[in-house]
Design brief:
Largest sheet: 6 strands, mixed
CATH architecture: Beta Barrel
Distance between the termini: 111 Å
InterPro entries: LD-transpeptidase, LD_TPept_cat_dom, Transpep_catalytic_dom
Order of helices and strands: HHEEEEEEEEEHEH
Shape: globular
Oligomer: single chain
Number of domains: 1
Number of strands: 10
Strand order of the largest sheet: 1-4-3-2-10-5
Strand content: 15-25%
Structural class: alpha+beta
Family: Belongs to the YkuD family.
GO cellular component, one term: extracellular region
Protein name: L,D-transpeptidase family protein
CATH class: Mainly Beta
CATH superfamily: L,D-transpeptidase catalytic domain-like
Number of helices: 4
Radius of gyration: 30 Å
Pfam families: YkuD (PF03734)
Amino acid sequence: MAAASAVTAPVATQAAERATVEVAPPVAAPPAPAPAPAVDGDMTARIEALNPGAFVWHPERATAGPIEIVVSIPRQIAYVYRGGQLIGATTVSTGRPGHRTPTGTFPILEKDRDHRSNRYNDAPMPFMQRLTWDGIALHAGAIPGHPASHGCVRLPLAFARELYSVTRVGAVVHITDEAPSAETALATARGVGMAIATSAPVPAAAMTGAMR
């Protein structure tokens, strides 16, 4: 009987040791970072302080998603969003009296880095992005601080180059008579029910139509 007791004692001790082992709770995953605000407060302040010909450009704020552009005629400012996040804003010059820039929502129809006007003395229109087949486009040009174009939306040259690099044919441009802030421009443009400008297919020869 003594021998039997000697065999069972270690077994009981091992069971007791196993019973006292504590299992660490699973490590919780760190919380996901909060999404960046659509508009940064510091960026908004810089936009409000822009002088004619100046712009703000931060494409790193959003690296994916569709590009949308909102041009405010009263404010002479254009806002650029990618995936709903503001990545840039610039002063612009829209159509002067008698050459009003049309309002509405337009897809970019054509892009030409080195376009020249067929109507206005072969005037250079760098980084042209066509919005209508009858001559309205985004392009680089003088920004005097007031509407001065023949109907196009002029952009500062450096900004026009940057914008050209991130857009594709089909990207949406909203042109509005509203005067929204950076925080409200995209929602305003999407929500006011502006008519979408549609263009029927045109012959290739017509794609070099007069630009303004």
